[in-house]
Amino acid sequence: MAFNFGAPSGTSGTSAAPAAPAGGFGGFGTASTTAGSAFSFSAPANTGTTGLFGGTQNKGFGFGTGFGTTTGTGTGLGTGLGTGLGFGGFSTQQQQQQQQQQTTLGGLFNQPTQAPTQSNQLINTASALSAPTLLGDERDAILAKWNQLQAFWGTGKGYFNNNIPPVEFTQENPFCRFKAVGYSCMPNNKDEDGLVVLVFNKKETDIRSQQQQLVESLHKILGGNQTLSVNVEGIKTLPDDQTEVVIYVVERSPNGTSRRVPTTTLYAHFEQANIKTQLQQLGVTLSMTRTELSPAQIKQLLQNPPAGVDPIIWEQAKVDNPDSEKLIPVPMVGFKELLRRLKVQDQMTKQHQTRLDIISEDISELQKNQTTAMAKIAQYKRKLMDLSHRTLQVLIKQEIQRKSGYAIQADEEQLRVQLDTIQCELNAPTQFKGRLNELMSQIRMQNHFGAVKSEERYYIDADLLREIKQHLKQQQEGLSHLISIIKDDLEDIKLIEHGLNESIHIRGGIFS
Question: Residue 68 class from Cβ within 10 Å (0-12 exposed, 13-18 middle, 19+ buried)?
């Protein structure tokens, strides 16, 4: 069983034909259910190929090939691969959108029909897990446990009857234990933005070095029409030496206006068999749209838990959603999917760290520039003050020369009187001058006492003081030892002198 959210193809008033079990998330519209990969949220169905991008398929954003598939059977937007490869006018696009909306409304909320093959598969799975009849003895119980273990692991085949083929256990079966629910960010781009994601099996450095050749190759794939231009929106590194390239195509009309080719139109063209082969030759391993989900699609996705996921776990995942406006719960089945998300997380962490390092370097550079700017501002302030003083001196001299030979005017006399009054107030003993002299004397006394006290005070570190004491003690011990040696030498000298004197007396007695 796969994660099927859609309904088998059918029209109102007619019964749905039996459909094969889908291998991925089915579309939200009238998509025909076909076997696909595990995480493709839609199964493409192309019903028209008129024009370059005619018979478009509206696909939402996908974790494999996009959420939802609504098949449009409009007239297309171009004039054909052989007649210009144009995207047509704007009126045709509006008409096609109306047809697509009608088709979407007709099949979006259809309830999924339980196909007989799916019910048979469930019955066979239950038989293999609970009551196999392969051997007809007590070994069937052991076989049932073995089948349960395989179902829990999500791999192997479950034999239960000699006349019925075994059940193939995959990680998408409801009994697989290696399942979890994560969250993915929902894109907020509109279909008019025309963004399509191409995943290349190449390194980012190779893509960037050959970006111009890549754009030219994509332009050739689009037919080489001069009215179309391919633009790269962004390049991002992915795990396992893969690179994600986001592109959009701009169409220029003869009257000078331009517009972006819609995402669904461009994606439908890339999904054509011959175009897909050419993209694979360029190294493209996956192409998908990047458009936002409609509220109806989000509602249906959240209301119906994926096949194989417990509804209680799905409800709890919706409750635990940290940001329901930007994130959407996504099932994770198997270790490979968990490993893929872990690698993507590590890659994003490295990119965030690289960006933080760049920001840190920019901040350091800005701080250096700020310090330099502050120093220059201070220098310019000093220069401005100097120039202001020089300008004032020049103005004073100029005014003196201009007023030389003239009598003092009335306003100058008033100014002189005011200056004399201020001078008298400053020179008064009890006014400002006396207070200033008192403050100056106090400041001098404080400086003098501070200098004296600083001369008398000293401080020696405890370790240094201990070393000085130890050194003086060693000097004292050395002096004591030296004194004792000198005393011993003096005693020896006295003994020698005494012996000499005795020998002299003895010799004198002999000669006498």
Answer: buried
Place of tokens 């694979």: 280
Extract the tokens encoding 364: 């350091």
Q: How far apart are CA 394 and CA 400, in angstroms?
A: 10
Flag whether the pTM goes above 0.85: no
Cα 346–Cα 349–Cα 355 angle in degrees, nearest 5: 145
Q: Facing residues of 94 across strands?
A: none
224 token code pair: 């080489």
More confident residue, 437 or 477: 477
- pLDDT given at position 40: 34
| Pair 69, 27: CB distance under 8 Å | yes
Amino acid letter at 9?
S
List of residues 6+ apart from 117 with CB closer than 8 A: 18, 20, 21
How does pLDDT run across 308-329, given as a tens digit for each residue?
788 888 899 989 999 888 899 9
Q: Which amino acid is at 410?
A: A
pLDDT on residue 387: 96
Q: Which residues of 320-330 are buried (b: 16+ CB within 10 A; e: fewer)?
A: ebeeeeeebbb
Find out whether 332 and 27 touch, Cβ atoms under 8 Å.
no
